[in-house]
Amino acid sequence: MFRQSIRRFATAAESASTYNIKVGKVQGRVNGFVGGMRQIRPTFVSSRFYDVLTFAAIAVGNTPLIRLNRLSDETGCEIFGKAEFMNPGGSVKDRAALYVVKDAEEKGLIKPGGTVVEGTAGNTGIGLAHVCRSKGYKCVIYMPNTQSQGKIDLLRLLGAEVFPVPAVAFENPENYNHQAKRHAEKLENAVWTNQFDNTANRRAHIETTGPELWAQAGGVLDAFTCSTGTGGTLAGITRYLKEVSDGRTECWLADPPGSVLYSYIQSGGKLSERSGSSITEGIGQGRVTDNLKQEINLITDALHIPDEETIHMVYRLLDEEGLYMGASSALNVVAAYELAKKIGPGKTVATILCDGAYRYADRLFSKKWLREKGLDTAIPAHLERYAVLP
Length: 390
Prior knowledge:
Blueprint: H1 2-11, E1 29-30, E2 37-38, H2 47-52, H3 55-59, E3 65-67, H4 69-75, E4 78-83, H5 93-106, E5 115-119, H6 123-135, E6 138-144, H7 149-157, E7 161-165, H8 176-186, E8 190-192, H9 200-216, E9 223-226, H10 232-244, E10 250-255, H11 261-266, H12 290-293, E11 301-304, H13 307-321, H14 327-343, E12 348-353, H15 361-364, H16 367-372
Parallel strand pairs: 1-3, 4-12, 5-6, 5-8, 6-7, 9-10, 9-12, 10-11
Antiparallel strand pairs: 1-2, 3-4
């Protein structure tokens, strides 16, 4: 039954998903940021479809696939990044945000005028704030106080009530996710959307991101890699690609310092104690979430990406590709680059450009911050001119 559902999305772009989200091929793929588009069997959405869906539902997804020209030329592979920073909330998390709210509506967990509560490192909250504004819900966000001020400010500008709380381990009852759950339980007509373990998150990527990626790649995709926070993006895309390719597409986890998932996969399922930290926000994990759990055995292998390589790629992407990417996107691109070198020339590799650098500029391009993190030496001399902030 599941395979039939997957095949439907692989072959019928005009079909709507279970949530009536249109899966189209309208964006095709692009040779670089300003290059010409290769259109792949374009489809068009009827005016009637626009009439029955909200702005949020129409705007989320169908992002272009961008060829990373310099890295592709260096490796002899075709390396692509899916431009999730072009979603209305600016990140891949818009997809999960839309699906967890739709899931709550379908299950009768929230009614008009209700409140959506979530624990998030930022981007899911921004997506939820957009969706809640569109649908008339209140939005309450709990987040670690380690997140950038830009994310906090944007959430408040979007009308969300924000509670930055101390960053503590998931096992601690004061973890931001547990506080979000308790907050929702105190309110009438409220739902905690539970992005980490609500598999509607994973489903968003089975039903939209995976089919889009496969169609844009023309049905030729040798490998996919991305990092994970909730697990939804990696798990959902992995599930779809493994099904539609009959297992031929390799799917690799990209993991930052401070996460246990690289060692978990390398050790065959042994969960180690979390230690260390990373400059990246919203990725890396100390446990296997319910979103990831169902697909963990489908993951081919894992790559550990040091912060030095991530920050270097932030600057390379800006200089060589004209792409102003955040650290998580840069980490994903490093992983795609390393994976391309592993599997050899002539192959096609894709990753997720999950968000831009706009919310992190005061850190990533600050000379003082880079020195404090010991990352200033990771930037080659010819790229130092982009570190324009004090």
